UniProtKB/TrEMBL annotation:
InterPro entries cross-referenced by the UniProt entry: Acetyltransf_17, Acetyltransferase_Eis, Acyl_CoA_acyltransferase, Eis_dom, GNAT_dom, SCP2_sterol-bd_dom_sf
Provenance organism: Paenibacillus catalpae
PROSITE patterns for this protein: GNAT
Assigned keywords, A-Z: Transferase
GO MF entries: aminoglycoside N-acetyltransferase activity
Residue intervals of the N-acetyltransferase domain: 3-150
Protein name (database record): Predicted acetyltransferase
Ranges annotated as spanning the membrane: none
Keyword Cytoplasm recorded: no
UniProt keyword DNA-binding, yes or no: no
Any one Gene Ontology BP term: aminoglycoside antibiotic catabolic process
């Protein structure tokens, strides 16, 4: 049996779509096929397939994306569409594709990778780790936030990239792990996945400060996206949503795990559900650490330590890295070729991603045994990692 790994092109479009529809149990209507072809041609994505005797057996896509960590933009490979025909499963084909994709992402300078897992345990074996949760509120109409007066104006608008993206982008820089959305992302992904109505809140000076994308059907209101840059915008947009009380029985919204809406309600006994959402992986630890914006120090002293990194699927990450964090938060990173007597923190690549995305604090991981090192050194590292909410209001 012959086996080869290839970059998929338009010549394999039908084969790719056939496998995707089977694996993910959906069907693209004939009227939507042209749109899928257009997205295939124009989206910045590398699609890889393994062929056995000339037949496509397994595939995945790596989307060329960018994300924000501590307010800084990072190149990120978004892994999606991982699928295999049943007769070829459990033969290590997905493992080969993941390994290949890591090598390709490193070559392209994508220091991070995100994916939505079908199985968290499966992808943990390859170095991805949960980096963000989603909290879902299901609020009965009687428990919605109180309607309060506001001074600005709410206007219904079209899904306008020029108006909405600056608001979204300002919000995205405040959290870790949100995408820097390109215009094509709005046109292809947001427009198709977040249908319904869009309203924008303008303050009294006419400056837009927030928006909501939502949909009403079967007496339920689904908030697809809620972006607020000020408390005034948050309060006004919730007041607007509460105006739908006569036509709905319930409102549903997905928010960051640390969202504090319930605390602000007169009756906070609403239904809340938190579940793991996306996973992250550091593709190139040395490059990522050099770019990473650490917390500025309280004095001019340098914070130094050695990271002993384990990463069996990306051997270029394995080994000892000397990290010196300057007072301004910039890092000098050097690879050590031999053993060192310096203070070390031993970590797998997944735990390192959980730390540096802000999903888990180093002292918590030390307590769980997920990392090893002297407590005073781990505390020193933690003092230089900004405390940030992780949130991804997208799917791929």
């Amino acid at each position: 049996m012959t086996k080869d790994t290839r970059l998929l092109t338009m010549e394999q479009f039908e084969d790719m779509i056939e496998l995707s529809q089977f694996a993910f149990q959906y069907e693209i209507p004939a009227a939507k096929l042209a749109e899928s072809r257009e997205r295939f041609e124009h989206e910045e994505t590398d699609r890889w397939g393994i062929f056995l005797d000339g037949k496509l057996a397994a595939q995945l896509a790596v989307l060329d994306l960018h994300t924000y960590i501590n307010g800084k933009r990072f190149a990120m490979g978004g892994v999606a569409g991982v699928s295999t025909w049943p007769e070829y499963r459990r033969q290590g084909l997905v493992a080969e594709l993941l390994q290949h994709s890591l090598e390709q992402m490193k070559e392209k300078g994508q220091t991070l990778s995100f994916l939505h897992p079908f199985s968290i345990g499966f992808y943990r074996k390859f170095g991805w780790e949960v980096y963000t949760d989603l909290k879902t509120y299901r609020i009965d109409t009687s428990l919605l936030p109180a309607r309060t007066p506001y001074s600005g104006t709410i206007k219904r608008v079209e899904l306008n990239y020029g108006l909405l993206n600056p608001l979204y982008n300002a919000y995205a820089k405040r959290v870790n792990g949100a995408l820097d959305r390109a215009e094509a992302w709005w046109n292809y992904r947001i427009a198709s996945r977040k249908k319904g109505q869009t309203v924008v809140f303008f303050d009294t000076t006419g400056v837009a400060q927030g928006y909501v994308i939502y949909e009403v059907k079967n007496r339920e209101l689904f908030v697809h996206e809620f972006i607020d840059l000020t408390e005034e915008a948050r309060s006004a947009l919730w007041s607007f949503l509460a105006q739908h009380d006569s036509m709905i029985d319930r409102l549903e919204i997905k928010v960051a795990a640390d969202d504090g809406l319930a605390y602000l309600l007169a009756n906070p006994r609403i239904k809340q559900e938190i579940e793991p959402y996306f996973m992250a992986r550091i593709v190139d630890a040395e490059s990522f650490l050099r770019e990473y914006p650490f917390e500025a120090g309280s004095d001019e002293a340098e914070t130094g330590f050695v990271l002993d990194i384990q990463d069996e699927h990306a051997p270029w990450n394995e080994g000892l890295l000397q990290v010196r964090i300057a007072a301004d938060g910039s890092a000098n990173v050097q690879r050590l070729s031999g053993e060192t007597n310096g203070e070390q923190i031993r970590t797998g690549i997944g735990a390192l991603a959980a730390m540096l995305t802000g999903y888990k604090r180093p002292t918590e991981l030390l307590r769980y045994g997920q990392i090893q090192g002297q407590s005073h050194l781990v505390e020193k590292l933690e003092s230089r990692i900004p405390a940030r909410t992780t949130f991804l209001p997208d799917f791929f």
